[in-house]
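Question:
Now give any protein.
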Amino acid sequence: MTDNKDPMVPDGQVTPIDTDYQVGQDNIVLNIGPFGLDIHNRVFAISAFAIIAFVALTLFFQEQAEPMFSGVRNWLTSNLDWFFISAANIFVLICLVLVVSPLGRVRLGGTEATPDYSYLGWFSMLFAAGMGIGLMFYGVSEPLTHFTTSFAGTAAENGVRTDWAPLGGAEGNAESAERLAMAATIYHWALHPWAIYAVMALGLALFSFNKGLPLTIRSVFYPILGERIWGWPGHIIDILAVLATIFGLATSLGLGASQAASGLNYLFGIPLGSTTQILLVIGITSIALISVVKGLDAGVKKLSEINMVLAVLLLAFVVIVGPTLAIATGFIDNIIAYFRYLPELANPVGREDSNFASGWTAFYWAWWISWSPFVGMFIARVSRGRTVREFIISVLLIPSTACVFWMTAFGGTAIKQVVADGYQKVVEADLPLQLFSMLDVLPLSSITSFIAIVLVIVFFVTSSDSGSLVIDVISAGGKVDSPTPQRVFWCLFEGLVAVALILGGGLVALQAMAVSTGLPFTMVLLVAAFSMIKGLMSEPR
């Protein structure tokens, strides 16, 4: 923080919750050699045991793991796609209502609170923690995939569509296929995911900075559960949050490892395969450990700012040497296309494009929701002093705009290479390699590809270390100053889970666990949204 003031002490008027609970009262404090531990006796123990059991079983039954993970993912996304799509729509509507309602005047931290970080520092941390690796992995591959499937048109067997095109596709029409592809991509990366994060973050910030409760997920449920949040209902909520976060992060770490491995193979001929990915996970987890030990300001904040500079440089390069005019005009055209197709893309029932709705959208919403405890708590910690209106507008619009521009520059450039130049290598490349194939035909490709690999790794590190900080707070009963060895423990566990999932089925296993933990947490988050609104209604404005 920018000063030594306790962030949990409000400035000005608030309506605190009167409870006898003391932060850490259920914790076990012990010393193991030179290391001290301060852990919540149930949340830490059950979460850690569940993760250890999962890693052991996955490693022991590697051959059986892949078909099982594939079956789980396919069943959940195909049968419950309507539920995930409906839930995400609800979170967007809640945010829009809060922006225009009088509740938008509530200030996080009290009526006289001032922000702890500048806008630039705040936006950097929002962006790097929220969806760094995903932008690198899907920036080229998602718009390009939707373009090729839309352009190819629809296909059916026994009256059921078998293609992956969004909505009705755009067979043979390159211009319409590009518009639909970019609209579908923006749908997955703009308002909906950031609304999910905003709801979680706002609830945590409100009940911590204004109501005086611990910075942990259970606190958001006080208006509904009352003092029972300190018992088993609260333990279960926090355990689900830890598991969702671990598996959501592991999915991202697995994506990052596969893309970094592809880039290293492309540039230096390093062999592809699970061994390279596992060595990358180990190496990057080691870097994350150093950042975790240094803490939020010295570690995560510095890395986030380095990341932003590198990302902006790479983005600027693609815009300048790529199809500059097409990117500039495409940015506006893509936003218009997004709003034009949004009602159809966000429709949860009666969909004909079942592969797209379940395989892409339902997976994404489950993945974002599994990230929401981690990103939500991280955003909450750095957002004290903002009004609810300022908070929601910033958290929704600033990163969404950046994501739209990123996808337009990277995805739009790749599509232009295919349509205008007939460049097929980028289409034929595996998903993790498509970014490097796109950069290959631009000048200085070796340098830009190397910067892209560094970006993937640094995004990897910022996600891992900020995730470790957040999981540690939850498993320490809301203590934000718990001993460093606990953060080290969770950072190591994230790496272990990613390794286990890479060995036990690769990308399918990673996605299956993100969806599996995202499902119960979607229900948790829907109830949390209702509880958060009740909490806001009692605050001075």
